[in-house]
Amino acid sequence: MRIVVALLMLSLAWSAHAQLTIEITQGVDNPTRIAVVPTGWSGSAPLPEDLSSIISANLERSGQFDSVPRSSMLSFPATEADVFYRDWRVMGTEFLLVSNVEKRGERYYATYSLFDVLGQRKVISQAKVDGSEAQLRDLAHHISDKVYEKITGIRGAFSTQIMYVEAFQRATSDDKFRLMLADADGARPRLLLESEEPLLSPAWSPDGRQVAYVSFETDRPAIFLQDLATGQREQLTNFTGLNGAPAFSPDGDKLAMVLSKDGNPEIYTLDLRSRQFTRITNHYAIDTEPSWTADGEAVVFTSNRGGKPQIYQVTLASGRVERLTFEGEYNARGRVSLDGKTLVMVHQRNGVFHIAAQDLTNGTLRILTETNLDESPTIAPNGAMLLYATRSGGKGILAAVSLDAGTKYRLPSKQGDVREPAWSPFFQ
Amino acid sequence: MITKAMKQGLSFAFVMAFLVGCSSTDTKTDGADAGTSANGGVTTGTADGGSLGSSDGSQDAMSDLETVIYFDFDQAVLQPEARTLLQAHAEQLIGTNTQVRLEGHADERGSREYNMALGERRANAVRDFLVLQGVNRSNLEVISYGEERPLSLGSGESSWSKNRRVELDY
């Protein structure tokens, strides 16, 4: 009984799918108070995207900002000359963002300035960014990144994207699986691939141009590579048994994966140029879920070689294997932060599956989430937040938590089960 | 402990009764008719898993045997009930060229790729048992769907125990 695969490829086409909407559930105790003044605009028709709303939503979602509601603003300054610091200081505003957009031809030109209200000085002066009408949201994300970095000292990740799988499963067999791409805030969802057979484990190439994932469209699991700009795809593996968990090396030259072609699930790397496979692990237990350390010198993986799933690390040059997790009976799907200091994972405690972070310098493990059935943690490229999949109200949803557990938000979906998030790298 | 042992005893008795029922059915019906009556009589299942239960999974055309084998959480070990059932499958497969696809599955808990590997482990355990009984290995194909194709869509042990399974797809 083979099911015919209907494969629909609408690469980078806008889709009418319900987008993920943000619900902030927890922010830091003393967020920075910022006023994002409505974007100045002199066009006859309204600006197609409300840049200032996108910016303040971005900043609030980080948990580190509290934005002043428009209704409380005493004035809407569009230039420095209109800024009266005292008006903003009296309402406890610490920073003030003023922006303006002009349209020349088919292009939109944004100018923005950031003021330190308490210091009464300009910290970003007349910065500029421009783009097409379709890029207006990108302009807002760009400004958000600059403001966030100026105030926190951490590079903003609002211009990044997320991939995820949307699944529609019923008791009958007409399942549908969609690989989706969206802005980091869940807006502008685009369909990358649709199949009647399972799709899972999407992974970004480090340059953000390609994705690898597992598809069952051939009636067996296989790893595919897809170019985001052209939609072109290539089947990389077709072995008997498992073909799963693809992970690009930090230099983008190799893909780590799990294959069970030799009888046991083992970690392999595929050199994407020479197309050579190299076996990395050799153990009769389950070895799976490879993930690279930031220096590309080691691969972290899940193994039940000790009887229960735990996270191990293999150094590629020496082949030396070291166990990383010891707390609890189930630790899986580890991801090491870019600074190499934190390991995030799926961790079971009292029968409940949470996302936990382990400090790799001192071994301390901390549970970050209060939800259940949590899985697939993926860290933002700036290391501030991680996205994961959980269940709420009988549906699969995405949620986010900061690595210090201080900030939490959810991205509920109106339709289907949403899971398998993969946070993009920085673009350029 | 007593309750658990009694449950297991009961479900074992159930399996035996079921198997006896099957062989008598076999003498009366053959071919396509058998498939339609396959699901009717069996409704078993203990909370501990590892026992037989009825399923919506496909039934083969040549046998009334239950085609779903259940497992405990994070385990790929065959329960005694499963062995009894698989022995019956082996007996009718030996000496034939019947192709059987063994589809391994896991419940939704834990990580997806680990569950993919676990599903394969379960299907391998079924394959190895059948081969040990004399079934031709080349007639058995193993595939794992991990937690991607649940039989029961809910969250909770009653769904999870149904989803930790291997389906024999004739």
TrEMBL record, chain B:
Q: How does it sit in the membrane?
A: Lipid-anchor
Q: Which GO terms describe its biological process?
A: cell division
Signal peptide range: 1-17
List the residue ranges of the region (Disordered).
Answer: 30-59
Q: Name one Pfam family in it.
A: OmpA
GO CC terms for this protein? cell outer membrane
Name the source's superkingdom: Bacteria
Question: Which cell locations does it reside in?
Answer: Cell outer membrane
Q: Give the UniProt keywords, A-Z.
A: Cell cycle, Cell division, Cell outer membrane, Lipoprotein, Membrane, Palmitate, Signal
Does Lipoprotein appear among the keywords?
A: yes
Residue ranges annotated for the OmpA-like domain, each copy included: 58-170
The record's function comment reads: Part of the Tol-Pal system, which plays a role in outer membrane invagination during cell division and is important for maintaining outer membrane integrity.
**Homology family:** Belongs to the Pal lipoprotein family.
> How does the record describe its quaternary structure?
The Tol-Pal system is composed of five core proteins: the inner membrane proteins TolA, TolQ and TolR, the periplasmic protein TolB and the outer membrane protein Pal. They form a network linking the inner and outer membranes and the peptidoglycan layer.
Please identify the protein, giving its name as recorded: Peptidoglycan-associated lipoprotein
Q: Which organism is it from?
A: Gilvimarinus xylanilyticus
